[in-house]
């Protein structure tokens, strides 16, 4: 073999050591390289080549041990493998590639130039790919279902809240105005009479401000200049459903909380008013105008609050103590309960079922009563028809020319037609 340089040629001693390996190249080395390449294609080994250490062990176990000159304590000497790598580089037609390191260029291992694969490897890869596809499809379906459920839930909640408010026309201040009204009223928490007002279970139902009923306040409802400092507020409570001794204070706190920043010097709750009237006096005309705009046309405890100005003379005549009132009133606590969101109404399923059963029974009773009334009407109509037929028959018999009425006069019978 011609060598370009002396350093690239193998010595006679190196050729003598590598000759036994070349004799077993097709029998030992090539099958091992094929097996390793298949394992690499299936992902069982991390490297494409067989390392020098693995080649030393392979040759040590597979080659005959007639000569120990090229064997080391742990297998075939590394120089023999290095010589084999050079021969592989010089003979590319063997189908073997010498893999060298990037830094020093030393021999790292041997590998096949081709990449053989097995049918089993293809089947395994296809099965894993199909499994991953199924998992990805299921994950996408679950994610889509969750997104759809969330969207449907939020739409249902929005529709439910929208149905709780309806628009209607009401007369306010002598004018017909479009207002928003809660369809089902304000939900309250359950209240147990006789329970301690301090605990959570027996606390009276809170009264809260639910928002304005008008889209915008018209000019005639919000005067630019307040005529008086006294106000009369309607629909703040229902005297038929209020109980206890502390509810007037709750009404007063609600007004003071809603009119935060406004000077109010006197508040009087008319306990016996059928219109739920509360009288309020402000510290100045400017404060009364601000209180009017803050209260008029708002929903409070499911009722539409209306406000009008009251002459100070009439106010002082009814409440003499308010004439010299100058100290600003403040809420009895700082919890601002009337400005919080209304509590959720808790209705037990048993109560709902009982109400449904009662409604069904009432409907059945009404249907039975209607059927009985219809039967009675039919009987009366039949009786009237029978009486009409009888009277008609009698009249026909009297007026018929075939009937003779005999009058006995002077012993003679005179027929009358």
TrEMBL record:
Which ranges does the record mark as transmembrane?
A: 130-154
Q: Name one GO biological process term.
A: nuclear envelope organization
Tell me which domain of life the UniProt entry assigns to the organism this sequence originates from.
Eukaryota
One MF term in the entry's GO annotations = chromatin DNA binding
Region Disordered, annotated ranges: 193-212, 340-404
In what ranges is there compositional bias, type Acidic residues?
Answer: 347-388
Q: Does the keyword Membrane apply?
A: yes
Keywords annotated in UniProt: Membrane, Transmembrane, Transmembrane helix
InterPro entries from the UniProt entry: ARM-type_fold, INM_ESCRT-Associated, Man1_RRM, Nucleotide-bd_a/b_plait_sf, RBD_domain_sf
Question: This protein is called what?
Answer: Inner nuclear membrane protein Man1
| Native organism | Chionoecetes opilio (Atlantic snow crab)
Q: Which gene encodes it?
A: Lemd3
């Amino acid at each position: 073999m011609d060598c370009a340089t002396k350093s690239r040629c193998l010595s006679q001693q190196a050729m003598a050591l590598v000759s036994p390996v070349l004799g077993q190249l097709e029998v030992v080395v090539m099958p091992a390289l094929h097996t390793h390449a298949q394992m690499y294609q299936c992902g069982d080994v991390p490297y494409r080549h067989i390392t020098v250490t693995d080649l030393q062990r392979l040759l040590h176990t597979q080659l005959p041990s007639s000569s120990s000159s090229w064997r080391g304590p742990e297998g075939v000497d590394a120089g023999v493998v290095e010589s084999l790598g050079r021969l592989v580089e010089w003979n590319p037609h063997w189908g073997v590639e010498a893999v060298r390191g990037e830094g020093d260029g030393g021999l790292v291992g041997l590998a096949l130039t081709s990449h053989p694969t097995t049918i089993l490897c293809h089947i395994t890869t296809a099965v894993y790919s199909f499994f991953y596809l199924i998992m990805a499809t299921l994950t996408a379906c679950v994610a889509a279902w969750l997104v759809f459920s969330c969207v449907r839930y939020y739409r249902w909640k929005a529709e439910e809240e929208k149905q709780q408010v309806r628009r209607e026309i009401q007369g306010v201040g002598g004018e017909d105005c479009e207002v928003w009204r809660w369809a089902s009223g304000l939900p309250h928490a359950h209240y147990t009479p006789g329970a301690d007002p301090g605990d959570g279970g027996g606390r009276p139902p809170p009264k809260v401000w639910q928002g304005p009923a008008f889209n915008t306040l018209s000019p005639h409802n919000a005067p630019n200049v307040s005529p008086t400092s006294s106000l009369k507020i309607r629909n703040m409570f229902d005297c038929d459903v209020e109980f206890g001794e502390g509810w007037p204070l709750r009404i007063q706190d609600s007004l003071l909380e809603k009119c935060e920043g406004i000077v109010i010097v006197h508040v009087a709750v008319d306990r016996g008013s059928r219109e739920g009237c509360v009288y309020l006096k402000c510290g100045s005309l400017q404060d009364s105008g601000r209180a009017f705009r803050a209260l008029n046309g708002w929903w409070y405890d499911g009722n539409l609050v209306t406000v009008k100005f009251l002459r100070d003379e009439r106010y002082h005549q009814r409440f003499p103590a308010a004439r010299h009132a100058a100290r600003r009133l403040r809420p009895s606590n700082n919890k601002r309960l009337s400005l919080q969101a209304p509590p959720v109404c808790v209705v037990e399923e048993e109560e709902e079922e009982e109400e449904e059963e009662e409604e069904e029974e009432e409907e059945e009773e009404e249907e039975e009563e209607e059927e009985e009334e219809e039967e009675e009407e039919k009987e009366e109509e039949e009786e009237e028809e029978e009486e009409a037929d009888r009277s008609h028959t009698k009249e026909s018999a009297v007026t018929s020319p075939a009937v003779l009425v005999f009058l006995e006069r002077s012993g003679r019978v005179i027929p009358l037609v």
